[in-house]
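Hey, resending since the last one bounced:
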Amino acid sequence: MQFGIFTVGDVTPDPTTGRTPTERERIKAMVAIALKAEEVGLDVFATGEHHNPPFVPSSPTTMLGYVAARTERLILSTSTTLITTNDPVKIAEDFAMLQHLADGRVDLMMGRGNTGPVYPWFGKDIREGINLAVENYALLHRLWREDVVNWEGKFRTPLQGFTSTPRPLDGVAPFVWHGSIRSPEIAEQAAYYGDGFFHNNIFWPADHTKRMIELYRNRYAHYGHGTPEQAIVGLGGQVFMRKNSQDAVREFRPYFDVAPVYGHGPSLEDFTAQTPLTVGSPQQVIEKTLAFRDYAGDYQRQLFLMDHAGLPLKTVLEQLDLLGEEVVPVLREEFAKNRPAEVPDAPTHASLLAAARKEREDRQEGARA
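The structure tokens again:
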């Protein structure tokens, strides 16, 4: 099982000081957070994609390429790649390039984002959001797997004899997660291709998340990729920790109250009671995170949002120390207990390459027979 962090890259004033970081400071802070993630033993760093204030990560592959050069083990991912408004050809080439630079330590998460105005900025119609997601990914999937593509669709010009470059590293496409909070069509899409399904697990109560994951698992089996238990599931979540739970609540409350993602709504107490948000001690974080398995089953990736809502970099790095030293080692041990043997590990470039080689060998053996 993989553990890591994801960021939305918001530039938010610190409500305790009134100071707003500059865009440069926030971008540099995100890099520092990624480097810290590797230092404390996490597996994954994922960045969002936004094209509007108050967010800064408009070019995820630029940031991830820079982080790749400064890390050795960390898997570099996105917490949203806008499959609706990005050109599939550009996605195919950008992430294949990143694959080569990072020696395969790359995957990505497709999503539609949560900013409606982004559609006309890139010449798209928000009313076609689901259709764009379906058509664009169908093309991207082919671009990574076919050396020469002839294609025609509704939303972009046709391709004739087109080869995206560079080709995926070792002939193996980056693993794709499809992220959605509420759209069953996206769970269906993930299942159809045998890709992963990621639920950000921040806003919604457990019963909603359970229904989405069960839909994906059942449809994954329907399309012949394996049993429902073998489907590839990822979850998000947000935590804020201090050694003493009362200190955590007191320190985090002013940040929660103005947070762009969930501020100005239910109280901190109501939100933590009804959603996966955990504010408390490391032990409380461990207990609540382990409970995710009760409704998600045995899953492959757990990412935490740590740097939202104006939290200063120093505080976020302290959070990562607690996560790496006191929380994740226990989660690794506990999640491994009683994990059925047929439940697969989280995909990596090495495991995908090994599977591709075995498939080729099986085909060759079948041809000889």
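DSSP finds 13 helices and 13 strands in the chain.

Sorry for the duplicate.
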